[in-house]
């Protein structure tokens, strides 16, 4: 088993410095802290959680609130959760996973019981009912998501508004003028979930600026729901040549339905997706996409939270810039006869 002294020797610092990095009892320079943390990772050092808790009056546990809803794409949520757990371990913290949909009651349970030193909250709505409690408690918290009002909060998220704008710009550059958005399940919009609402805002705003016609239709996902949604879109906007999909469960059904209708991708229609990289690259047509940086979001959230626990952090919003990767599913708009 690796000892604290071995970590100190590897990092070229004193054993007390390693202890201070782990406990947060003293301010350590960023350079030294990172060197110690890198040594901890390389050597696989695991501090004794019980001893640390007794010494610091902390539980050394971070609560992760991750409601697993049927209308959300669970693999992305779990990828974020895994990134949170692995990053937390490098800082000497374990993760308590709260998967119920209890909302404020779960926040009260954590803050009132001492179960965890801090919280990371996911599935954030624009007017999330958990926010007043998070603002009032003295326990640090970080949101993975962006509410309408970020005052007194620390948030980490993909810049979904910029993501929507980027998708529209790509299709506009290729000459597409009629664009349909196949969105998340209706319940996601009914809850005013932040990522979906902000993507839609970016899509609509940039479409207006570029003079494009945009149609948004939520979709439950799956073949039957996608068939009904696509039929409605083509009935309402028969000249649609560009699709933006923000619904992982609708991707493959859409591509299959377009093939059945004799609409070639990308010669007749272009498809751009907001989805995990794996979904885009493993689709039957490799998708032009903006990736959801799940691992980066989870890592940033933990680093922001640890900084707060160590007295170094402040309330801020970290928005990750979207990156669009062009693949086989997008091309020039067909010439209208």
From TrEMBL:
<dbReference type="InterPro" id="IPR000843">
    <property type="entry name" value="HTH_LacI"/>
</dbReference>
<feature type="domain" description="HTH lacI-type">
    <location>
        <begin position="2"/>
        <end position="56"/>
    </location>
</feature>
<dbReference type="Pfam" id="PF00356">
    <property type="entry name" value="LacI"/>
</dbReference>
<feature type="domain" description="HTH cro/C1-type">
    <location>
        <begin position="3"/>
        <end position="32"/>
    </location>
</feature>
<keyword id="KW-0805">Transcription regulation</keyword>
<protein>
    <submittedName>
        <fullName>LacI family DNA-binding transcriptional regulator</fullName>
    </submittedName>
</protein>
<dbReference type="InterPro" id="IPR028082">
    <property type="entry name" value="Peripla_BP_I"/>
</dbReference>
<dbReference type="InterPro" id="IPR010982">
    <property type="entry name" value="Lambda_DNA-bd_dom_sf"/>
</dbReference>
<dbReference type="GO" id="GO:0003700">
    <property type="term" value="F:DNA-binding transcription factor activity"/>
</dbReference>
<dbReference type="GO" id="GO:0000976">
    <property type="term" value="F:transcription cis-regulatory region binding"/>
</dbReference>
<dbReference type="InterPro" id="IPR001387">
    <property type="entry name" value="Cro/C1-type_HTH"/>
</dbReference>
<keyword id="KW-0804">Transcription</keyword>
<dbReference type="Pfam" id="PF13377">
    <property type="entry name" value="Peripla_BP_3"/>
</dbReference>
<keyword id="KW-0238">DNA-binding</keyword>
<dbReference type="InterPro" id="IPR046335">
    <property type="entry name" value="LacI/GalR-like_sensor"/>
</dbReference>
